[in-house]
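Hi everyone, sorry if this is the wrong subforum. Our group has a chain we'd like a structural model of before ordering constructs, and none of us has done structure prediction before. Sequence below.
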Amino acid sequence: MDHETIRALCPVDARASYDWDACCEVFPRLRALETTPQSPRYHAEGNVGLHTRMVLDALLDSDHFRSATGPRRETLFLAALLHDLCKPETTVIDPATGEIGQPGHSRRGAVDVRALLWRAGVPFALREAVCRIIAVHQVPFFAFDSRRGESPEFIARRLSWSLDVSDLVCVARADMKGRICHDQQARLDDIALFEQLAREDGCWDTPRAAASAHTRLMYARGAAVHLDTPLFQAAGSKVTVLCGLPASGKDSWVARHAPDLDVVSFDDAKAELRLKHGENDGLAAHRAVDKAKSLLRRHAPFVWNATHLSEQMRGKTLDLLFAYDADVRLVYLEVPCTTLFKRNAARDTTLRQKDLERMLHRWEVPLPWEAHEVHCEVTP
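Answer:
Right subforum, don't worry. Here is the predicted structure as tokens:
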């Protein structure tokens, strides 16, 4: 599978259709959707495969998709095609009631699709546009009834900093039209209202403006601030947080760009403690955090060099840094699949190839609102 093969699946003009069998040949995991049940309450049409085809039909019938060209058209098609890819792995059936659910399928789907498209050599920007839609494809359904208590304005604004809200709404609307459920029209009305809100607030097809990077960051993290008024930023360390898969070039980046700065590194801490990969990670983390706190108290600039592979793991580091008023730049590094595994095999490390493979299941590329600045360096 390569990018050209994947691109060929996407209909190229308004009257063209798609070939489901060809899609299953390129993405064999789609076949499992045909035997994956869904809750009749939300999907009376039947299995996930049937639903996915109905979603694609609805997408191809939408004005937004018909007017799209090039990578944008491919993004919409792949997001709709793969949006429920992980429903088979996440399906749970209540033994007492028989109720069917697929909790977490959106977020897990985004992670799995990222690995699939990365292996296929799909360009970074296109891949991430697809994965970001998949990760939140249901959000427009429930933006006015958030389980987290977030306002729809907050949801639309933060989404606009990581994706094109108009593309997300297009896929969400196709997802809702491509099913049979009792509240379909009510949810379509919610999606339309979410669209109207985003248009009026200036975040429909462009990122919502903010008075400063710090204002945007604090707002995205839940602070009660007004986006159009600059928020005072206290003095603190300037910290570069590196993130990316092992063997993606983080040590080389430090040597090239920050040779004179202090470095906080879990790997260095493990080496100092003579620990192997996966052995007493807590002790190594404690040592690294103590060093970081010492630097933060002095407002000293430094680099935090770690994989920081998932949003949850980055969050622990970022929470600490922001508690000390640090000015943070996230630098994400990525290399092609073959390069990564070749490097890992050649270097002196206790990280085995199969351990590296398993790490792909936690791989979440940082979003633009996670730090004051997020910079992605992707080697072709």
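For your construct planning: The chain is about 50% helix and 10% strand. The chain has two domains: 3-201, 238-378.
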